[in-house]
Amino acid sequence: MTQKKDAAIYDDAAFFDNYIDLRKAANNYNDLIEQPIVFELLGDLYGKTVMDLGCGYGAMTTKIADSGAKSVLGIDISEKMIEKGIAENSRENVRYQVMPAEQILDVRQTFDLIVSCLAIHYIKDFENLFSNIFSLLNPGGSFVFSMEHPMYTASLYSQQWVTDPVTDKVIGFVTDHYGEEGMRHIRWLGKEVTKYHHKTDTVLNALIHAGFILEKIIEPSPSDALMKAVPKTVHELHRPAYLIVKSKKG
Predict the structure, then answer these.
(1) In this predicted model, which residue has the larger pLDDT, 8 or 158?
(2) Which carries the bigger pLDDT value, residue 6 or residue 220?
(3) Which CATH number characterizes residue 40's domain?
(4) How far apart, in whole angstroms, are the C-alpha atoms of residue 144 and residue 157?
(5) Quick one: which of 9, 53, 159, 211 has the most CB atoms within 10 Å?
(6) Is 174 part of a structural domain of the chain?
């Protein structure tokens, strides 16, 4: 999910194919770390009305739909993502719609739960986004989201790991310009992608200002079993890739 000016990135055929290949690859971090945590935080889904904001091709959308949700609306700005979702991840209780996050009030429907997976770091104005999400939730409704961790989005330069000069093992991660919020341009999957860096306190305070009650904040660290099975995940001990939050409409 991106702002309108960047929609062509995910609708570019080569970029889209590279992204799908990345998601299908064995041991991708979405499936290993982020998605299981997000899904667990959703709780009991039976009979609930749900919005999946920045749904992509519907991986989480269908998982929610198959877990007893009454209805799920998947929203994404990318036409190619939505087309793939309709073609491969359709359900009777699922509906997809092409729409930027900034326009979600046009949905004119309320929800028991709004979930967003690795999408909101493409959005500049969190205050407005969270306020709109709050207004679309039923009383007591939940907002659960994951985003790239602010330690990860902060840098103005390419990702830099620090290695031990003797063993060549990774011993740290370079975080620069953390306190300088705003636009970031990164090279990813052969294209320049625009994202926005927000400090952790900015993210959490924007939720509080919108009226949300914070229920759970997770900066995932790899388990011993995961580090043994997938050794590269040991890097996450030095810099969590994700910030995952569960909040409730007060």
Answers:
(1) 158
(2) 220
(3) 3.40.50.150
(4) 30
(5) 53
(6) no
Q: In this structure, what is the dihedral angle of CA atoms 225, 230, 235, 238, given to the nearest 10 degrees?
A: -10
How far is Cα 182 from Cα 180, in angstroms, rounded to an integer?
7
CA–CA dist 29, 221 (Å, integer): 12
- Per the model's pLDDT, the better-predicted residue between 184 and 28 turns out to be 184
Amino acid 68: pLDDT: 97
Whether the predicted model's global pTM rises above the 0.85 cut: yes
Contact 133, 212 (CB under 8 A): no
| Rounded Cα gap, residues 21 and 19, in angstroms | 5
Q: Enumerate the H helices of 44-187 as residue ranges.
A: 59-65, 79-88, 126-136, 150-153
Q: Which of 122, 190, 113, 187 is nearest to 156 (CA)?
A: 187
The structure tokens listed for 212 are 């949300």
Q: Provide the domain limits for residue 115.
A: 4-149+197-249
In terms of Cα–Cα distance, which of 126, 145, 117 is closest to 199?
126
What single DSSP character describes residue 34?
I
The token pair that represents 234 in the structure block: 């040991």
Q: How far apart are CA 184 and CA 2, in angstroms?
A: 13
- The alpha carbon torsion through 215, 147, 22, 159 (nearest 10 deg) reads -130
